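**Paired protein data**
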Amino acid sequence: MSPDPEVPLARVRSYCLALPEAEERLSHGSPGFLISGGKFFAYFWHNHHNDGETVAIVRTTGHDEQQMLIENDPAFYYAPPYLGTFGWVAMRLDGADLDWDRVDDRIAASWELAAPERLLEAGGR
């Protein structure tokens, strides 16, 4: 099982909530991050399906991008249960050499995919 999830959760939470109009809400017992009054753009799961994984789950542009990410780095990305069928991708957060800039970039891209036009026109993230 992954080590203490509080450290990666704090990092994911801090980055997500710094994005415009982002909120946190529990979703199926795990932290989820959404745009106020709108769509979810990220989830944090720790041992969610008794799999021992600590992951952040984000939107992609669709199945083609999801497949490309997974094929290019299967040790980091995978299609999560439920959301994977909609093109979302999970990022494993328990590696000792985790590239947090890559995690932050994927979260930001996911936010942009969920953001309403008015936020994007106002300058986005």
